[in-house]
Amino acid sequence: MKRQKRPRALGPVWLRWCMFLGGSLCMGLAVAVAVQWVVTGSLSIVWEWFVKWPTYLLLTGVLYGAVVFTLGALLGRLWLSAILVGVAGLVLSLVDYFKTAINGTPLVLADFGLAAQVGEVAGVAGELRPPVDFWMALIALGMCVGILILVRRLTLLTGRCRFVTFSIALALTMGLFSTQGAQTAGAVFQVDVNTRLAAANSHDTYGLTLSLWRDCFLQAKKSPEGYSEAYMEQVLARIDDILAEDSAAPAPAVQPNIIVAQSESFYDLTRLPGLQYERDPLENFHALESEGISGTFHSHYLGYGTGYLEMSMLYGITELDFGAGTNICFLEDDAYEKFDALPEQYTESGYRAEMLHGYNDSLYNRTVTYPRLGFSDLLFSADIQALGFPWEGGVYGGYYMRDSYFFRAMLDRMEDINSSGERAFLYGITMENHQPFDPEKFNYECQIGVTSESLSEEDMAIVRVMLEGITRADQALGDLTDALRESEEPTIVVFFGDHRPNLFMTDGDTVYTKLGLCPDNDTVGWTPEEISDLYSTDYLIWANDAALLQGQAGTRRDSSITAIGPQLLELTGQPVTRYWALLEKVSQVCLTNTELYFVDGAGTPSAGVEEADLSDEDRELLQLREDVLYDAMYGQQYITAEMNKPVQ
């Protein structure tokens, strides 16, 4: 058997090197176009983007081309490196497409923290299929690779030339993917690598690849001007002055159990225009509003982000507190121990904190973060089913655990904890109303009739799934509060929706676009008022003894994922640390502060904190919070220990 001969090079070295370089850049540009083709769903949109910002597409092509060039020199086959880079680019675009299809938001750097759980993420998202544009882009890239195969003898580098080319290419490519190189390339191609942007705006301007690339090299959180031990001592003194203005809260007469129910995709859908219901699908929630504290709940997310909400509520942080691309569920382990978390404000006073989740333990790093936040036990789906409490009927509803079964498990844990002489702080995360919202999810069952003059029957089939899921959540809430009315144990229930479902209709638009609540799926064109509305749900704080609500029963008050913890602490008169006392003060002037929008303490939205109508005192509070977090997470922890001490 004869040994297969390697293809012989054709032409002089300089020609082959030029062809190699040209082929790499052309392939890089082809991959750049293909990625945007899949992301936008139209070559014409890619062309419009190129005409508007030609240098952004060119730089994207250079980035891909540099990788093709380097791998080609390493492997000795330009066509082979083109295949690898082309596949990688298409996979990246497909992940972005799927993420947008799941929750309406583009892929961001922080999402790579969930890369190890991609299978689980896909599992809860339902059936995902690549779009037609993906296959067309794949064919187009295949044709480009075919051309490189045909001219492979003209791009063949061998011997010393190949070694030198690879060495130079590796150095230059690594330079492009370094902070200094990014600054240089950004200046040449007119890319701002300094300003942090909301993901939707960044992708709309720079495209998927360049948006992710620039986020890698954006500066981390800047230190406060004059940051030093003396500076932070002044910050601490100023915090104490502000906190001293408030009179000390009286010690609570009774320590109630705390049940926090984070209800999947729950919100008051009766506020959607253009839908008519035969009866109130939230009859329990609406009835309980007159007995509790309720209002708009600014959740900071739409369609996804459950784990990020948990970190914001339990630890008082948001992604804006960290460098671009930071996933707040995947920080360094010790980061979650720098401040005493919300549960620890209670566990230090005789409470036992436990988390219950209606799914498995695979997502959002919960098995790492929750023990560090003060939770003694974590109970996931299998653990809950092993509790053995009396139950009639099925455990699962739709694709996930029934909310009614889940709340019965929370009651079982509360009773067990109380029997041991402790108070219970329970954080529950439901799943029954989780996407996908396939028409067959609940076996086509919908307890409440709904009609619309603007939606087709196919779209209404999807709406009915959302309606049934929220109806079941409301009924489970009613069962929970009915059971607590019969209990002698004083208990406060905090119930809120983590986000609205990003309910996509049959043509790819969301139900919110169809009903006129926003112009399209891209938040770039939304007003602050539209963002604030759709990035919010509803909440309720209820107690089986009205006295536990400190005279606030029946009141309305806007809250948010970063304000609900301080609100609960204030309500229960719990002794708190300086950190949480400061967060309570901040929540009075700021309910939401993200890259996308800002909402002040009165619920008024604006495009950002700079545009918000805030007093100098309000802005000082925001700066003090930022200083404290910078000192703890990026600085020298000059005052972190003091922030974990009770207010004097």
Which tags fit this structure?
648 residues; alpha/beta; 8-stranded mixed β-sheet; 3-stranded antiparallel β-sheet; 24 helices; globular
Could you characterize what this model shows?
The structure is a single chain. By secondary structure, the protein is α/β, with parallel strands linked by helices. Helix content is 48%, strand content 10%. The protein is built from 24 helices and 15 strands. It has helices at 13-40, 43-52, 54-75, 78-103, 118-125, 132-150, 159-176, 179-188, 199-206, 208-217, 229-244, 283-289, 306-315, 342-347, 366-372, 381-385, 403-419, 457-485, 511-514, 528-534, 564-572, 578-587, 616-633, 640-643; strands at residues 257-263, 276-277, 293-298, 351-357, 377-379, 396-397, 400-401, 423-429, 450-451, 491-497, 536-543, 559-560, 590-593, 598-600, 605-606. The strands form four sheets. An eight-stranded mixed sheet has the order 5-4-8-1-10-11-3-12, sandwiched between helices. A three-stranded antiparallel sheet has the order 13-14-15, with helices on one face. A two-stranded antiparallel sheet has the order 2-9. Strand 6 (396-397) and strand 7 form a beta hairpin. Helix 3 (54-75) crosses helix 4, helix 9 crosses helix 10 and helix 21 (564-572) crosses helix 22. The mean pLDDT is 91.
